[in-house]
Design a protein that fits this description.
13 helices, about 30% helix, binds manganese (II) ion, 2 domains, binds ligand BES, binds zinc ion, aminopeptidase, about 500 residues, Leucine_aapep/pepB, Leucine Aminopeptidase, subunit E, domain 1, metalloaminopeptidase activity, Aminopeptidase, alpha/beta
């Protein structure tokens, strides 16, 4: 640890692709092999080209002797004399079938989590699905040690090298592996930001790190400080930020796609570096989870960086409001009225509904760039968790685009689910003094009411999606699959899949 953390603190392992199992140099490596359930016990999955018949038979009989069946989620370590590796780790995949990528990704993630003090992995599992295996291994091996002193820091360096066994090592296969490395590294960046405590990640510092990261991959970066925000009329960001001694920022990161008349996508992410609730203060229990209230911002920054790394032929412009929601003598009060960027006035009935205030400003600014699409994501409502649970983001917005985003989110295993924005909920946001109130008096449909609020600020002709990741951004339960405790990086892979889809078909 060195005082100020960096978003690039986590070093992803290096990945090489090989079409055969190297005969030498693996005396400390672990071979990760997929196994399926067979009529007569566990069967090694698709590793025949890489692992000899004798070694395959030894793995299968050894595993059977340990009681392994190849059932989904089972992990076993074996020593196989026929192989040039220190040991074999089998991962159960269940019945042989055409596995969804996320089954393989989770299996690889669980495998990586079970490997302590192993620096090199040879992944025969990659023969089943190269990209999912590499992503799963990197995401599962992720750890955040920035703030541990020698007293509790891990003694080893973690997973450093992955040798992925594939059918060939041609350029296209290597590009697939590199794509997986880039995606997983961006998810790790988002996780690092979320895991960095609020003492060390406050608006000015977050903006500084986002700028450095963006410039390192060739993005154009603009940062508005508190004075510039006040001058330009960003009443929502200023109102939320003014209770803190650590003043707000607005960061804009632009990736210019090469090609004629590229589609343009705006990304907006909620960057509340800590949410106490403000004067409408939250209860003490679990308030520390609010370190994750910049999870949307983290994912949006990670996604635009990934778009640049992967050279997507579209314009991607991220607009990221950053503020700390604190109670103090200078904080906004319940009942205050502020003017959002663009002119709509809002009665702040509850200072804990701060996300929509900073987002409305950012959405109006993002729409000034005339995007074709706008994706906004935020840890916006506790109601998301009530409606959908800890692992399912709620996706709202323009019907068609919302469904497209939800479908792609399912495909990448982040599992966003489409939700409606009923017209009548707008009546719940009527104010007696201003254009809008920031909360409804009713307890019904809190996630949807927040979406209805945001809809008021999206320009007419823009296809938009709002992804509520209140719980999915931050895992407060035990680790599972490739998801550790703490920051998850959700919905970075969803947004990148949408960008790639737009790059392909408009
Ligand atoms: N950041 C919270 C939402 C949240 C809650 C995220 C739990 C992650 C876990 C947000 O700013 C908030 O406080 N929302 C209020 C809105 C309410 C006042 C209308 C909520 O959900 O209680
Ligand atoms: Mn809040
Ligand atoms: Zn919040």
């Amino acid at each position: 640890m060195n005082g100020v953390s960096s978003a690039t603190g986590y070093q992803a392992p290096t990945v090489t692709v090989s079409s055969s199992l190297p005969a030498r140099g693996l005396s400390e490596a672990v071979l990760v092999v997929g196994v399926v359930t067979g009529d007569d016990g566990p069967v090694v999955a698709l590793a025949q080209t890489h692992v000899s018949a004798a070694a395959t038979a030894a793995i299968e009989s050894g595993l059977k002797a340990l009681g392994g069946t190849g059932g989904e989620g089972q992990l076993h370590r074996l020593v196989i004399a026929e192989l040039p590796v220190a040991s074999v780790l089998t991962v159960g995949l269940g019945e042989p079938r055409d596995w969804p990528a996320d089954t393989i990704r989770r299996a690889a993630g669980a495998a990586a989590r079970s490997l302590d003090k192993v620096s090199t992995v040879v992944a025969a599992l990659a023969a089943v699905d190269l990209e999912a295996t590499v992503e799963g291994l990197i995401l599962g091996a992720y750890r955040f040690t920035e703030f541990r002193s020698d007293k509790t820091a891990p003694k080893d360096k973690g997973l450093g090298k992955i040798i992925a066994l594939a059918a060939d090592a041609k350029a296209a296969t290597k590009a697939t592996a590199q794509r997986a490395v880039d995606i997983a590294s961006s998810v790790a960046t988002a996780r690092d930001f979320v895991n960095t405590p609020p003492s060390h990640l406050y608006p000015a510092e977050f903006a500084k790190q986002a700028k450095a990261l963006g410039e390192s991959v060739g993005l154009q970066v603009e940062v508005l400080d508190d004075k510039a925000l006040a001058k330009a009329g960003y009443g929502g960001i200023v109102g939320v930020g003014k209770g803190s001694s650590r003043l707000p920022r607005l960061v804009r990161l632009t990736h210019k796609g090469k090609g004629r008349n590229p589609k343009r996508v705006a990304l907006v992410g909620k960057g509340i570096t800590f949410d106490t609730g403000g004067i409408s203060i939250k209860p003490a229990a679990n308030m520390h989870h609010m370190t994750s209230d910049m999870g949307g911002a983290a994912a949006v920054i990670a996604t635009v960086v990934l778009a640049a790394k992967q050279n997507l032929p579209i314009d991607v412009i991220a607009t990221v409001p950053m503020a700390e929601n604190m109670p103090s003598a200078t904080a906004q009060r319940p009942g205050d009225v502020l003017t959002q960027y663009g002119g709509i006035t809002v009665e702040v009935l509850n200072t804990d509904a701060e996300g929509r205030l900073v987002l409305a400003d950012a959405i109006v600014r993002a729409c000034e760039d005339n995007p074709d699409y706008l994706i906004e994501t935020s840890t916006l409502t506790g109601a998301q968790t009530v409606a959908l649970g800890a692992r399912t983001p709620g996706v709202m917005g323009s019907d068609e685009f919302r469904d497209r985003v939800a479908k792609l989110s399912q495909e990448v295993g982040e599992n966003g689910w489409a939700m409606p924005l009923p017209e009548e909920l707008k009546d719940d946001l009527k104010s007696t003094v201003a254009d809008l109130a920031n909360v409804s008096a009713s307890r019904y449909a809190g996630m949807l009411v927040a979406g209805v609020y945001l809809r008021e600020f999206v320009a007419e002709d823009v296809q938009w999606a709002h992804i509520d990741i209140a719980a999915p951004a931050y895992n407060t339960g035990g680790p599972w699959g490739y998801t550790p405790k703490g920051g998850t990086g959700v919905p970075t892979r969803t947004m990148f899949a949408v960008l790639e889809d737009i790059a392909r078909q408009g």
